[in-house]
Amino acid sequence: MQAEKQKYQNWSRLKKRSEFLWAGQSGLKWVSPSVIIQMSLKDTGKQGAAKDMPAFRFGVTATKKLGHAPIRNRIKRRLRAALKDVIAENQTLTETLSPVDIVLIGRDKTANIAYEQLKKDMRWCLKRLAQKAGEAKAK
């Protein structure tokens, strides 16, 4: 348990609506059948990233059109768990992308799709976004 807490200590959650909107307006977005991922690279500025600034922040959202609260909660739980598994399997993603804000948006299929397929879709989206982010940083 202690090792798991230490592994995710540089993670933080997006909580304010403005944070979700800012991540959505950055222009980096990838859509799969089970999840939509929006990403914004944090501008470290001239001073560099602050030491207390989390390297990796994420937010999860599910709209009311997906169903009632229990279904939306299930979607959000599955997205959080899948993200932790995908990042744990591929640590280079966080190192490549940091510092970054990620918004996971649930879709209709998220609630019932096989968990392995959800992770596969998420891996695919994050890989594509990492490529786009690399191109954006190079410019």
What labels would you give this structure?
139 residues; alpha/beta; Ribosomal Protein S5, domain 2; five-stranded mixed β-sheet; globular
Write the layout of secondary structure elements.
Elements: H1 2-7, E1 11-13, H2 17-24, E2 28-31, E3 35-41, E4 56-61, H3 69-89, H4 92-97, E5 100-106, H5 115-138
Parallel strand pairs: 1-4, 4-5
Antiparallel strand pairs: 2-3, 3-5
Helix pairs in contact: 3-5
Structural notes for this entry:
This protein has 139 residues and is α/β, with parallel strands linked by helices. It has a single domain, classed as Ribosomal Protein S5, domain 2 (2-Layer Sandwich). The protein is built from 5 helices and 5 strands; from the N terminus they run H-E-H-E-E-E-H-H-E-H. Strands 1-4-5-3-2 form a 5-stranded mixed β-sheet, sandwiched between helices. Helix 3 (69-89) crosses helix 5.
